[in-house]
Amino acid sequence: MPQKSGTAQAVESLFIDELETYRAQHREKDYELIDVREPAEYAAGHIPGARLMPLSRFEKLMRELDPSKELLFYCASGGRSMAAALMAAESDLKPARVINLQGGYMAWDGKELLDFPKVRLLADKASLADMLQEAMNLEKGAFRFYTLSSAQEFAWADTAQKLVEWERRHAQAVYRLLEASPRHEPLAPFDDLFASLSGTILEGGESLEEAVKKMQSLPVSSCYAFAELALDIEYRAYDLYRNAAATAKDAAASEILRDLAEQEKAHLSFIAKVFAACSGEAS
Questions:
Q1: Which element (helix H / strand E) includes 27?
Q2: Span 128-278: which CATH code?
Q3: Which residue has the higher pLDDT, 50 or 122?
Q4: One CATH from 3.90.226.10, 3.40.630.30, 3.40.50.300, 3.40.250.10 for 3-108
Q5: Would you kindly state where each structural domain of the chain is located, as residue ranges?
């Protein structure tokens, strides 16, 4: 059965192999199945009845959707569809229900899911200060990944370079909140603290350098692979800042954290546009 996601408000998750049961229990006029991959991917094969709305153009196309319908999103494996589902859920559209189909077309088609690097699950933190420390490390990991990515020779590189600058600014904003929070020990200067953070953010402790090599060896466009991991990083950061904003007792801190969450959501939209450029590149 669909379950409410513990991360994105109003977004539910449904495994792709449960889709046929869902369709049997719902009338066609009550839901819309949306494929957010690029046109070439859709043309190569898609779930029957799915409407193509590429993530790279989704913000413009979204207004065409009927808000009275339940919206089901899928992509190749689940990353892009989660971003689209979040955009729809938090838009003025206010759809009846938003569902992300985990596993995507690859699972529906019986293909083995590609071993994309994934951001580790972030542990629940007891205090705002602990959440801010986690956020600093996540920003450091994002900073390091985008720095490595910007050296690659494909469409993703220019986007990565812009994100390098933004992630450092986010880390500085988090640092200022840490400075203002009650502490038992003095806080190191920003540059020293940022340099000391490991930025280890991937499942299994996988290094970002190893992840970059792995993505270049996957049987898909490297540009796609890099953008998929970027979506995962930004989504985790968005979720972390939203939760931290809800935890903060100080109204000013809460407002800053909500603003950071909105900026991470904007990063998702920024990265989404890369997929159109990626689609013309070879593996």
A1: none
A2: 1.20.1260.10
A3: 50
A4: 3.40.250.10
A5: 3-108, 128-278
High-pLDDT (> 70) share of the chain, %: 94
Q: Comparing C-alpha atoms, which of 136, 135, 129 is closest to residue 250?
A: 129
Nearest to 177 by CA among 128, 219, 213: 128
What SS3 state is found at 78?
Answer: coil
For 231, residues 6+ apart whose C-beta sits below 8 A from its C-beta are 79, 80, 82, 83, 268, 271, 272
> Closest Cα partner for 2 from 71, 91, 95?
71
Q: How many Cβ atoms are within 10 Å of 8's Cβ, its own excluded?
A: 21
Residue 95 clears pLDDT 90, i.e. is over it: yes
Distance, in Å, from the CA atom of 13 to the CA atom of 102, rounded to the nearest integer, reads 7
Q: What is the pLDDT of residue 254?
A: 93
- Six-digit token string for 67: 């808000």
Residue 2 pLDDT: 47
Inter-CA distances, 39 with 9, 36, 42, 75, 276, Å: 29, 9, 5, 11, 9
Where do runs of H (alpha helix) occur along 181-279? 190-196, 208-217, 222-247, 251-272, 274-278
Distance (Å, rounded) from C-alpha 88 to C-alpha 100? 11
Q: Phi-psi category of 209—alpha, beta or left, where left has phi over 0 and alpha has psi -120 to 50?
A: alpha
49: phi > 0 → left, psi -120 to 50 → alpha, else beta; which? left
The residues, any chain, with a CB within 8 Å of residue 182's CB and separated by 6 or more, are 129
Whether 267 contacts 47, CB under 8 Å: no
User: Residue holding tokens 């603290």?
Assistant: 193
